[in-house]
């Protein structure tokens, strides 16, 4: 299997309460701090883990009393496990906050 033999799975998901920065028409009323979710797989067999991580973040933020996540980002990478396999990972992070309109 070559690099370009893999079929790319493209999905679109919309979340109205996840932002990479604070929206200009809103203000942060309360900040609960940084939250994160992670996943790891041997040999990079990811399918919809990014959506699962985002759902986990939103669920955790909701439990804390937050209504949004700001400063959201994904971090991914891989490493050699030492036994001939590579493990890949995705980390989703963001700040759980309460946002209000200005």
Structure description:
- The chain is an alpha+beta fold.
- It has 1 helix and 3 strands; from the N terminus they run βαββ.
- It has one helix at 49-64, and strands spanning 26-42, 68-80, 86-101.
- A 3-stranded antiparallel beta sheet has the order 1-3-2.
- Strand 2 and strand 3 form a beta hairpin.
- The longest helix is centred in the middle third of the chain and has 16 residues, at 49-64.
- It is elongated, with a radius of gyration of 16 Å.
- It starts with 25 loop residues before the first strand and ends with a strand.
- The model has no long low-confidence stretch (mean pLDDT 81).
Kindly list the characteristics that best describe this protein.
102 residues, 3 strands, 16% helix, three-stranded antiparallel beta sheet, alpha+beta, 1 helix
Question: Secondary-structure blueprint of this entry?
Answer:
Elements: E1 26-42, H1 49-64, E2 68-80, E3 86-101
Antiparallel strand pairs: 1-3, 2-3
Given helix and strand content, the structural type is: alpha+beta
Strand content: over 45%
What is the radius of gyration computed over CA atoms, rounded to a whole number of angstroms?
A: 16 Å
Helix content: 10-25%
Largest sheet: 3 strands, antiparallel
Task: Give the CA-based shape.
Answer: elongated
Low-confidence stretches: none
**What would the average pLDDT be, to the nearest integer?**
81
**E-strand count:** 3
Distance from first to last alpha carbon: 53 Å
């Amino acid at each position: 299997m070559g690099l370009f033999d893999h079929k790319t799975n493209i999905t679109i998901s919309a979340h109205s309460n996840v932002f990479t920065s604070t929206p200009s028409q809103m203000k942060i009323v309360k900040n609960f701090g940084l939250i994160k979710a992670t996943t790891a797989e041997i040999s990079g067999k990811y399918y919809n883990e990014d959506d699962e991580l985002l759902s986990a973040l939103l669920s955790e933020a909701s439990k804390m009393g937050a209504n949004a996540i700001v400063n959201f980002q994904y971090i991914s990478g891989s490493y050699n496990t030492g036994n001939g396999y590579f493990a890949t990972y995705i980390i989703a992070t963001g700040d759980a906050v309460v946002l209000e309109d200005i």
